[in-house]
Design a protein that fits this description.
Layout lengths: L1 H18 L4 H18 L3 H30 L3 H12 L8 E4 L1 H8 L3 H13 L4 E6 L2 E5 L3 H9 L25 H10 L16 E5 L14 E5 H7 L4 H10 L5 H15 L14 H4 L6 H5 L1
Antiparallel strand pairs: 1-3, 2-3, 4-5
Length: about 300
């Protein structure tokens, strides 16, 4: 393209010189205007090089933060680094904060299988290096934070929102965990921000509570029958049993065989009462509170 433009400019210049050859003053004026036109439309090469270097410095800064700070801090695997870099390349470096992508597209981009790309995305979400906004059959929509934003988020991490001020009942077996917001939050805290079924990362906008045994089958609101899950799994599960739904996720390749076995074991542990919601550290067992009420008996008599 550049040689063609140069040849066209020289031809136009020669034609103008031929027309203006009899009149010297007109020739000078035409040459002056022609030089100004070239200066406007074709800036010097060092100006273009300077702009290119400025853009390169921004990307170079991001990659230095990734290699020098983010990877050692989060201990990212090589495949996770490749997935994050590919998503940053097609989102933030293109001027977009969010990106819509599919697992086959990401797998082809980083040269791995679809299952490996899916596991890598889940690890990035767990490390808060990727923020899942939407997950549907059309693909995933995620926010891709920059390395400095991820590091700042890790430095500002706060303890669980339950804290010591939230008091759970002493007899959790008979408690209705849909009764108060604090009890519902206890179920979400037990799952540690992950969907009980598909293991996807949850946010305050995508999470909900699901009855393992549906209410239409006499399921109660105890902690043994409530789990925190994403809205997609809640809608797809419906009234079917949790075991059948987990196996359908495995058939759809949303769970690996190892993850399916782990989810089935977690389901058994939940039914056996081994997955109690986290009790606040300030809550004392009933045995330690009983002696404090004994001195009040003589006063009544």
């Amino acid at each position: 393209m550049a040689p063609f433009c140069s040849a066209a400019i020289l031809a136009a210049f020669a034609f103008l010189c031929t027309l203006c050859a009899p009149i010297s003053e007109l020739s000078v004026l035409v040459l002056f205007l022609f030089s100004q036109l070239l200066a406007v439309n074709f800036p010097p090469s060092h100006t273009l090089d300077q702009n290119m270097k400025t853009k390169k410095l921004n990307a170079e800064h991001i990659w230095k933060q990734l290699d020098d700070l983010l990877v050692p801090r989060l201990r990212l695997w090589p495949i996770d680094r490749a997935a994050y870099s590919y998503l940053v390349r097609h989102s933030r470096l293109e001027g977009n904060v969010r990106i819509q992508f599919s697992m086959p597209w990401l797998a082809r981009g980083i040269g791995v299988s679809t299952a490996a790309a899916r596991r890598s995305v889940r690890r990035l979400i767990d490390q808060k290096a990727l923020r899942l906004v939407e997950c549907s059959l059309a693909g995933r929509v995620a926010e891709v934070p920059l390395p400095e934003e991820i590091l700042a988020d890790h430095l500002q991490q706060m303890p669980s929102r339950l804290g010591a001020s939230v008091a759970l009942p002493a007899n959790v077996e008979e408690e209705d965990f849909l009764r108060t917001p604090a009890l519902r939050e206890a179920i979400h805290a037990r799952e540690a921000g992950r969907c009980f079924y598909c293991l996807g990362r949850l946010t305050s906008l995508t999470r909900c509570l699901d009855h393992v045994v549906p209410c239409v089958r006499s399921g109660d609101n105890s902690y043994r029958n409530l789990v925190s899950c994403c809205r997609d799994c809640n809608a797809q599960k419906g009234a079917c049993s949790a075991e059948d739904f987990l196996r359908s996720l495995f058939r759809d390749r949303k769970l690996t065989d190892r993850e399916l076995a782990g989810r089935l074991r977690a389901l058994d542990s939940l039914a056996a009462g081994k997955l109690r919601p986290p009790l606040p550290s300030a809550a004392a067992p009933p045995e330690t509170r009983a002696p404090a009420r004994r001195p009040a008996a003589p006063r009544r008599s």
